[in-house]
Amino acid sequence: MPVKWVLHWQPNQGSTVSSQILNEATQCVESINGVKEGRWKATLNYYKPMLRDQANQAEFPRDFLGISIVDDPSKYYFIIRSLRIVVEADSSIQLIMEKLQSYKSKVALYFEGFQYQLGDFRLRVGKVVPTHSENVRGIVMEVEYLPISSMEKARKVMEEFLEIWHEALSKRSLPGKFVNIELNFGEFGLADNYTPQHTAVRYAIVMAHMIATVQAVRG
Amino acid sequence: MECVVQGIIETQHVEALEILLQGLCGVQRERLRVHELCLKSGPNLGVVSSEVRLLCDLDQPEPTWTVKHVGGAMRGAGADQISVMVRTMVESKVSKNALRLFYSLGYKLDHELLKVGFAFHFQRTAHISISVSSVNKMPKVHAIDEAVPVTPGMQIVDVTAPATPENYNEVAAAVSSFCEYLAPLVHLSKPFISTGVVPTAAAAAASLMSDGGGTAL
Fold first, then answer.
1. Residue A49 pLDDT class (50, 70, 90 cuts)
2. Which residue positions does the secretion signal occupy (chain B) (predicted)?
């Protein structure tokens, strides 16, 4: 599949994320001739163990999450970031997890927004919202370069695209920027050839950064 | 959910059963070589203890993995009236590192088996799968090359068919009627209700081996 980067909005110190920034970002995509193709959505669940004795909580992973992504809706991905594990499964695995009654979702988040085509690029810009709420917790942007599936080969063109993007967005003087996180996919057992598992890992890392940012602001 | 029946057959009659199945199903048999790992939740994990199976299909160029959860059997008067077990079953294909995931989540290896044999899959009223396999245990963890039979001279016959709450009666009927064709060689019943080997198996097998197979359904 095509190489994809997942960027997230990092607000400047003292500012917060809002739907206004999402509007500005989507307008910016349209201003550089992005053609709107429709809506997109991904969902993410943080799981916590259901324990009979809470004292042993430390033995279980605290960063276990599952995600369904737009790349392949028939699949579901589990990630334990701290252990560098990513597992691909059929979406029926969610039913198995329910039946096991050993882990339950403690937080569920949606990523939702619009998809655009821009030459050889596909862009998706969307907000991160908890289920049953409209509170924007973050903004993400997927940048996909359709002709190439090798991450190394696509690096240069992705970087060049981001330069153009940052320049276009800078005219709007927004209080923050979209950042890409460099990742060592090899640690997760993933190769240079891009797969949906790479996307799942990217989302897990983006979420970890978003949470860390929120905690830093609060702290 | 799925409908399921099980039986046992002496290894010496397996060849005759294969000939019969070949004739009944009208499809080629598939080889079966599955490493099955049964995992149980650790002592503190889960509202109740839970069990999940990881199946590794070794008969592929690159082994493929499946997570399988088998739930409780349907009970009550309705269930008693049908001769097959109806139970919940959910499967999901997974990437090869699923075992590491489950270990990390607090599951422990309870036991593991190697099932070797063959299977037929065919579609009539229902999608019926029949597997005939010898069940082997391992002297050391994951030592599939050193596996030895659990019941030497005896093989397990499993007949399963996926079903839904809407159609399980029809599927159960299809499985039951199919089992009747196999009755001379193997008696199939609800799992865990062992009915032993069929006394007529030797005679039936001899007859099958001499005429070269059954007639198609």
1. very high
2. none
Asked if residue B42 lies in contact with residue B107, where contact means CB atoms within 8 angstroms, the answer is: yes
Nearest 5°: the CA angle B109, A45, A93 is 45
Q: How do residues B182-212 score in pLDDT, each as one tens digit?
A: 999 999 999 987 778 888 888 888 888 886 5
Give the CA count within 13 Å in the CB-facing half-sphere of B145: 0
Q: Are B45 and B106 in contact (CB under 8 A)?
A: yes
Fold category of A3-52+59-218 in CATH: Hypothetical Protein Pfu-838710-001 (2.40.320)
Domains located in chain B, CATH noted: 2-211 (2.40.320.10)
Q: By C-alpha distance, which of A14, A22, A201, A39 is closest to B97?
A: A201
Contact B41, B119 (CB under 8 A): no
Is B90 an 8 Å CB contact of chain A? yes
Interface ipTM above 0.90? yes
- Which residues numbered 126-165 in A keep a CB inside 8 Å of some CB on B? none
DSSP A9: E
Residue B106 DSSP SS3: coil
Contact A101 B91 (CB under 8 A): no
- Quick: pLDDT tens for B90-117: 999 999 999 999 999 999 999 999 999 9
Contact A197/B44, CB-based, under 8 Å? Answer: no
Sort strands B64-73 and B148-149 into parallel, antiparallel or unpaired. Answer: unpaired
**Residue B98, min C-alpha distance to chain A (Å):** 6
Give the integer Cα–Cα distance in Å for B184 and B202: 9
Sorted by where each begins, the domain ranges of chain A are: 3-52+59-218
Cβ separation B90–A100 shorter than 8 A = no
Kindly report the CA angle at A169 between A168 and A174, in degrees rounded to 5?
155
Is B52 in CB contact (< 8 Å) with chain A?
A: yes
CB atoms within 10 A of CB A58: 6
Type of residue at B102: F
Contacts of A92 in chain B (CB under 8 A): 90-92
**CA A176/CA B34 separation, integer angstroms:** 54
B4 CA: distance to closest CA in chain A (Å): 19
Question: Where do the DSSP E strands lie in chain A?
Answer: 3-11, 35-49, 64-68, 75-80, 85-90, 103-118, 121-130, 138-145, 176-179
Which helix (H) or strand (E) covers residue B172, if one does? helix B168-182
